Protein 1
Amino acid sequence: MHHIAIFASGTGSNARKIIEYFQDSPVVQVALVVSNKKDAGVLDIAKAHGIPVYVIGRQSFYETEDLLAVLQQHRVEFIALAGFLWLIPAYLVRAYPRRMVNIHPALLPKYGGKGMYGMHVHEAVRAADEPETGITIHYVNEHYDEGDIVFQARCPVAPHDTPADIARNVLTLEHLYYPQIIAQIL
Ligand code: GAR
């Protein structure tokens, strides 16, 4: 059984899809959900599925390696970031080499980097009149959105699409592909 952890900061709709996808899997178990926000929606989703949660503070995350012990305790061998907005520190990248992926709501290398998250991305795509956008799933290194790309999927942007329309279309792609790609990697 592969034990995976999901790191999320917000609503957790991707985390929910991943949890549901692997719910009855004989090979993959979501063993832990980690959040940097104690009121994140994703924590309720995890608890409803009986998955242990761990809330981490900034100091612990960046100035200690305590999280490694927690991950080891839950025998986590793979990490999926799903709307986790803090930069991953070097000790964590080293502990999970090519065993940690992120999903980004655009076609990297476009519209990535610090500050490019959530609606900021879709507003930038709209402002640039891009004919298409999409999702990128990539391995995580020490820089925002720069690790090797594993998978991309595209969707058109219509001239009348608002940033909210774009966000909805992109999220649909995320929900469809992220669990499948995690399964493939594992
Ligand atoms: C997702 O669209 C994800 O791609 C994005 O945050 C959203 C989280 O939604 N991540 C980033 O922008 C990272 N730079 P969710 O909490 O409903 O899964």
Protein 2
Amino acid sequence: MVVGKPFLTVEQIQRRVNELAGSISADYEGKNLLAVGILKGAFIFYSDLVRAIQTPLSVDFLIASSYLKDNSTGQVRIHYDIREEVADRDVLLVEDIVDTGVTLNYLRERILMQGPKSLRICTFLDKKERREVDVPIDYIGYEIPNEFVVGYGLDYDNRFRNLPYISVFKKRT
Ligand code: 5GP
């Protein structure tokens, strides 16, 4: 297994996180923001992002995993659910990476059923070319090609999450 040089450096990550936080701060001024981090992958991005957001907010988390059933349909399992009241709140879902869109689409529809005042999605990385389900994304850190990446919270087999940068992961054959 090889983790190579940075694909996105610490500096690039920091700069983009601050830009995203600037947009979010402006858009949520005077609102009742509930920022929901999707664990585990978003834990580092989420904590950097909320610390850079200038408007008051409440935090909560959601633990979800997706897995393939019958080699095609993605199924999503919730291991920990949002505990804050969602109804009438301005909810911002914070994700590490969107790939097929199956996970986010499922979570989005589930939250919408609880009647939030608004629901927006922020993802640090977006593999747009892999999308199977069309899910609206309001804030995107970086669009990346179809490569498996690790670091900055993202894992391979729950490893490499603590790399401070994003790297392309290759399995040695
Ligand atoms: P989706 O439901 O959009 O297909 O999958 C989203 C989830 O797949 C992400 O939250 C993440 O856990 C995982 N994932 C997708 N692409 C990558 C990747 O390049 N690297 C890592 N570490 N996880 C990924």
